[in-house]
Design brief:
Layout lengths: L6 H7 L3 H27 L5 E2 L7 E2 L2 H25 L3 H15 L3 H4 L4 H25 L13
Antiparallel strand pairs: 1-2
Helix pairs in contact: 2-3, 2-6, 3-4, 3-6, 4-6
């Protein structure tokens, strides 16, 4: 059985298709995160060097920041796609899970040593990924009607 999406949703994703729109959202999350890094490190001079207990100091450059943003965005996209296949409540479940992941992503800040400016820039990278990804993927989500089963029978 085909999944019925609301017509407003179809209009929002027709131009690039759902996958294309989601790819643009992921690219946007990476781009905005890179912009935060550019402003924070080269322009404002906050060296993003963090030291975890028992580990050598790690300098987080643009490549590392962009990779983590890309990887987490793709995991978020995959999680939404899986949820859309198994439940009609995919969007609310995914949104809550994404917000929980965002909150948990701040936990390492307590255990690492870095300057206050570096921690702020890193926190902003987490927030910017979420600020682009959550509403962007949320808008592309399939909204099943109550009459549409989650799985074909």
């Amino acid at each position: 059985m085909a999944v019925a999406a609301d017509t407003g949703q179809a209009r929002r994703t027709d131009r690039f298709g759902r996958a294309g729109t989601r790819a643009l959202v992921v690219a946007g999350a990476v781009l905005v995160t890179a912009l935060v890094w550019v402003v924070g490190e080269p322009l404002l001079g906050h060296d993003l060097v963090v030291t975890s207990p028992g580990q050598p100091a790690m300098d987080l450059g643009l490549a590392e920041i962009a990779f983590v943003a890309l990887a987490s965005s793709l995991v978020g996209w995959a999680a939404l796609a899986v949820l859309e296949r198994v439940t009609r409540y995919a969007i609310p479940i995914w949104t809550v899970a994404a917000l929980v992941v965002l909150a948990v992503s701040f936990a390492p800040f307590a255990g690492v040593q870095a300057s206050t400016g570096s921690k702020i820039v890193l926190a902003l990278t987490h927030v910017t990924v979420a600020a682009v990804l959550i509403p962007g993927l949320w808008r592309t989500g399939t909204r099943r009607t109550a009459a549409t089963p989650a799985r074909p029978e």
